[in-house]
Write a structure and sequence with these properties.
alpha+beta; Tetrahydropterin Synthase, Chain A; 4 domains; three-stranded antiparallel β-sheet; 69% helix
Length: 430
């Protein structure tokens, strides 16, 4: 038997399903490459493996709260050509269907799962936890489409909207809360005012009702007594006429008394209302004047305590600084004194070693100054009167001799004071 054979090429984005003779009970599945097909005895089907993008729209779905929202999701799906089992499922499910039919089936499946998940979550959960929502739809869709040979590559929640403005109301929650608090505060103030006014009106109505009741009772008693008086008039007219006048006076007096009682009750009610107004003003004064004043007093007291504490701490710090400064100055003086004492000791040792030479050197420097000091008074004298006894020189020579005598006595004086013989030391030098 001879069959015409043809070579069929399979693209990288498709799969071939070859069934019929030579294939046994299972068709041959081929992804990519080439295959030989015998027309007439074998059937060839092509399955598109291209990724399909699904825009999943679920309008007006009711959440677990009963709020209707519309959701748009985006999914990427494709027939799994790398898994032979799933490719067999796809060949069985979509062998004779077009890519648009396959896409429509996937879209319907994902839409059903998206709608089902929305029914189990609240609007807040969908908005705030989109990842959880997307994960649930992805998992359920993958499980269901797996039996059709299709894998879900990705799913993303694209948009959420509602026709009733529920999402907008969620976005305005904070503003609404602030407005709510303001409205509640205003309502509570109006409520308190209305309650006070209602209580006053209630008391006024009670007083009026009591007054009307008392008047009605008085009128009833009057009518009963009047009827009784009329009966007595029929039996004894003369006596009834006299008694009627007297009884009428008594009734009028009683009515006057009751009217006075009504006025007393009204006055008492007015006093109660005034007392309530006084209590209200006292509470208002307590909240608006006394409490703020006490708070301000407490604040000023705390500020005064803080200032006093600050001054005490500053004084203590100043005293501590002064003490530290005094200790530092005393230590510096002590160090200076020790240094000067050591210097003096060293000088003393030096003077001890060179006592005589230093003394001679010092005297040689001082002698001219002493001579100048001795002769200085004579230089200031304008006139000198000298009296001679006849012995020795006279005149200016006498004055010069006196100065020289004074200078000649200095070495002896130094020797007596210090023990150094300047004359001997000078002779030794020569």
């Amino acid at each position: 038997m001879c069959f015409d054979m043809g070579i069929v090429v399979c693209g990288p984005n498709e799969a071939l399903v070859i069934s019929g003779m030579f294939q046994g009970n299972r068709p041959n599945l081929l992804t990519g490459g080439r295959a030989i097909v015998c027309p007439g005895v074998q059937t060839l089907q092509r399955i598109n493996l291209t990724t399909m993008t699904l825009e999943i729209r679920t309008p007006n779905v009711y959440t677990s709260q009963g709020v209707g929202i519309s959701v748009v999701g985006t999914a990427q799906v494709k027939i799994n050509g790398s898994n032979e089992e799933m490719l067999a499922f796809a060949a069985e499910q979509f062998g004779s269907k077009s890519p648009e039919d396959v896409k429509s089936i996937c879209l319907a499946t994902m839409e059903g799962h998206q709608r089902a998940i929305l029914g189990t979550m609240t609007v807040e959960q969908v908005i705030r936890d989109r990842q959880t929502f997307s994960k649930k739809v992805f998992e359920l869709g993958s499980l269901d489409l797996h039996n059709m040979g299709i894998i879900v590559i990705s799913y993303t929640l694209k948009d959420v909207s509602d026709p009733e403005g529920y999402l907008e109301a969620m976005g305005m929650a904070q503003t609404a809360q602030v407005k709510k608090d303001a409205i509640i505060g205003e309502a509570e103030a109006k409520r308190d005012s209305t309650i006070a006014e209602a209580k006053a009106n209630e008391q006024k109505m009670q007083a009026k009702l009591a007054n009307d009741t008392e008047i009605a009772r008085s009128k009833r008693d009057f009518e009963l007594k009047k009827a009784q008086y009329d009966i007595e008039v029929n039996t004894a007219k003369a006596e009834a006429e006299m008694a009627y006048g007297l009884q009428a006076s008594k009734v009028q007096a009683r009515i006057k008394e009751e009217e006075m009682q009504v006025k007393v009750v009204e006055r008492q009610q007015e006093i109660n209302i005034q007392q309530q107004e006084i209590n209200r003003k006292e509470k208002q004064l307590e909240s608006t004047v006394r409490k703020p004043a006490e708070a301000e007093k407490y604040r000023l007291e705390k500020i005064a305590e803080a200032d006093a504490r600050k001054k005490v701490l500053e004084a203590e710090a100043l005293a501590e600084v002064k003490a530290l400064k005094g200790e530092a100055e005393a230590y510096a003086i002590e160090i200076k004194a020790k240094a000067e004492a050591q210097q003096m000791v060293k000088k003393a040792e030096a003077w001890k070693d060179y006592k005589e030479a230093a003394m001679v050197d010092m005297m040689m420097k001082i002698l001219p100054k002493v001579a100048a000091e001795v002769s200085a008074p004579l230089a200031q004298v304008e006139r000198v009167t000298m009296v001679s006894t006849g012995d020795g020189p006279v005149g200016a020579g006498r004055l010069t001799g006196e100065v020289l005598d004074i200078m000649a006595s200095l070495p002896e004086t130094v020797k007596q004071l210090t023990g150094v013989d300047i004359t001997a030391r000078m002779a030794a030098v020569r």
